[in-house]
Records
---
Amino acid sequence: MIVPTRDLFAHAYGKYALGAYNINNLEQAMGLFQGNMASRAPFIIQISKGARGYTNKLMLEAIIRTADQIWPDALFAVHLD
């Protein structure tokens, strides 16, 4: 489930660190979701300007929205670097 970063920070404050990871393609997104689901950890997906240029922002959006459907229990936010 995509949530605002503010919500993730509020929940984590004083309890645990939040991982923030850059992705550029499908394989990285799949690894990120699989790993964080296995550890039951919320996370932040970071998308840099370079990634948006390399992959195309529409492709990245589709990857993230599809991953959200495949792993509906994943709790994450999206941040544009």
---
Amino acid sequence: MIRTKSKMILLFMTASILTGCIRNIDIPYPDYKPQKVLMGTLEPNKPISIRLSNTLPVTSTDTVYPPITNAKVLCFEDGILLGELSHQKDGIYSLEKTPKSKSIYKIQASIDSEMITATDTMPSPINFSVELTKDNLQNVNYNPDFKLEIQRESKSYNWFSITYYRASPPVIVRPQPFFSESVYLDLFNSSKSLNGKTLHGFNIRIKPEYIGKLAIEGVPGNQFNKDSSLYVQFLDVSYSYDRYLKTAIVAWENRVSNNEGGLNNPFYEPVTIYSNVTGGIGILGSVQTRLVVVKRPK
């Protein structure tokens, strides 16, 4: 009995000592200095426009980045001053000039005592065509064969996406995945389906190193009706915008949680998104976008 009491006293004393040793330690984050962010996409049929903002610390719960409204922003075309961009609202600056193919554009933003710059070249559009055949019983959902032909005279950066559209009620607009074994397509945004075929995501990159007349064949993934159409969006992009798109898509697919905050990827690793901004972060990209509508043959 005495031995049992001694053990209980010893246990109580040990617990008291351990409890007395517990302390809450606050580890401060390092001093945070916001970075300047420049975001802009140049298109030949739109005025030149960019957005300037500051980054937020990792501990912030804000969803809106603080806009920069006091910058002096200049645009140069092929080394010659094209004009000064005026502030519109919320850090958006614009100039009533439209970019031209093959021209080089530089944005220079002076913010207090700091300067950030970015340069990009507007690509030239290449020729392309799209064709749908009649229904093929060998294809998934008996969908027709799809063929995209392009003509490259030199190395270029091109993307395309396919959207299913039905006008009759209920109206349906749905991105289409794409089955294709074409060697011309980048596999970064693809996976193997249950039938062993390669399924490309909604943003499909054509490898830039192939030159000449290229025929890309495949099958739209989802079923679509006889009275529906496919919208094919074709992009000619600059080298910088190509790298930005690819890294941004990889980062999005590799994110740790989904839009609802649920666990999406337990093997998440940080991905660096490409930036061509000097003195800050962000992207100045150039793109020419064209849209073709093809109907399913009857």
